């Protein structure tokens, strides 16, 4: 026997089911149906007869179905051991043995008419022949003498009509509906459905043709267990399966074991193979009398089925079955090509949408402009991923569109996603199974796609899809499809749907390839943001270097004029010390200390205390840490000194400043206290504006929040931002920008004194101001006064146009702290108010 071309083309098929499986006595249900050995049932359906022939020498019948006497006029005892020639005749045997029988799928099966003398009457059987594990399997069904003679003309008309109608459709949905209607007409069945699998083999009815009195199944969903793995594997081989009467009595194959393998006869490619009792029970509960199932396959992948139901027994001749099988193969190929074309066109459209979103971020440097354009493209943003909601975080502004979790939930999720993402992106259709907190909002966000749009992932977009069971409606009442009502029924459309709901709980519709394929395009935002950040980082580095130099200059001035003993440490080594320090420690000159490891001056037993103080100061660079330590002098004596540590910059490197005091006199102690006070002031103030540094401001803001929460009073926060400050720096240089900051800082300080407010420089040209026990009206009054005072400075922005002057935008918020709120809520509201002021045209004050 030679291998057919179709067999060669199907080498990729999983053939494990062709040789594996055992009988089981366990009751079968939805939970164990995937273990049922459906390819070796040991039975056939009764509308035909089966013979298994050993053709190694003289073709001899070695197994048969129990109904041979009904169809062939011979008992099983008379058939078994009978040469096949004695049954079919010499000529038919010669014709039969000329075929190639090796088959991988049912399209490879051989068909021939075989005439048998049955009790003196010649009967013709349409016989399907294939090889199974060394035996020839002959499946014989009586020919129908009433079929029309003009078979070829009839078949041509069917094929022509089917092709024409499918080709005239404009989309995949219409093509599916036409296929269902055409197959129904050909079979004369009551109902025909197109059934499609998802990625996890759950099914959905996507098209249906039915008699009007039947309830619709269109849109119904079923779990993967309805068509378990081994059944799907067999559908890849048996492209068409039929059940003539679901109430049939299975016909046993005798003997049970085939002689060559010692195992039950493998009926993987059998057209008469008996059907799983589990499937039969399911169909009976639906009231179905007969079925035909046609596989929809592309590239050896089973993507769906044409499932046909009739509500009484119905035999379909081989010719019609094969014609449906052929048209099903054409439809599967046609639909796949349409799907590919639709996907291609949809991907082009999706990429156009992605480009529009990307250009919003890439083409604008103003955060206000980005937010404004995003608002106009809200629907594009949602449509891009077929999402019900989206969150965009940009420049610390969190914007929510559509149906989304809360701000706090989104921020918590984003922090988790930043850690889970690879190459700036992450997606899942089962978020709550991967991220526990998402269980509280799975109805809004069971599926998410995340893409970071900045290198540090502080800026990002998240799309949300709801739990799929929230979206699915039955087309009809599934309970109507259940005929039996006793509690013993395990299988029915109703229970199947409930099982499907269990399977897909906490799950959204999956993200498609066309949607995920645009993520690389969106990641171009990251590259452009990186480029912009490099420019900004370079500018910021220059400013930071100048601030560090200014801070260092203040430390140096303090050291130069201070009578207190001190040293400066970098990487644990003494880099600088004054004469007073050398004298106190017993050294003749400062050069004896330069370069020394500072810990050599401290006894080993107290080095742990010293290191603890150093660790603390590194964690809080705005604080001084004072302690008492024993030191070892140059002469080896022990000396107890008061020591104060401060985090400073020396030579452009992070360093420690160490003040030493022996407390020998009140005068020395007074000078030491004065110097530590001066040093604390240097640490806590901005060198450019002499305002409190950001860390001090935020610490005091949190303290005020806690006090207001306790005392039930209000707290106000204002953001003051110099409009287009970067362009001012570009025009006048960094030194000119510093002068501008100092001028505006002086104005802000004067105004704040009148309102008993605290102000700090946040970064660049942005200041923040807090006001305890205020009202929205009073804060709005302060905001407007700030804006007017800056205008009064008349700082010229453009040398060529005296009317172009520096302005500020002010945004603020006032809250009475509550237990369910945090300081972040106040900051977020003030930020949104500043954004509103910028969006409305700048040089405005908005307080909410």
TrEMBL record:
It holds the Pfam family GAF. The keyword Transcription regulation does not apply. Residues 171-329 form the Phytochrome chromophore attachment site domain. Residues 713-848 form the GGDEF domain. InterPro entries: Biofilm_reg_signaling, GAF, GAF-like_dom_sf, GGDEF_dom, Nucleotide_cyclase, PAS, PAS-like_dom_sf, PAS_2. Keywords: Chromophore, Photoreceptor protein, Receptor, Sensory transduction. The keyword Membrane does not apply. PROSITE patterns: GGDEF, PHYTOCHROME_2. CDD domains: GGDEF (cd01949), PAS (cd00130). It comes from the Bacteria. This is Diguanylate cyclase (GGDEF)-like protein/PAS domain S-box-containing protein. It comes from Paenibacillus tundrae.
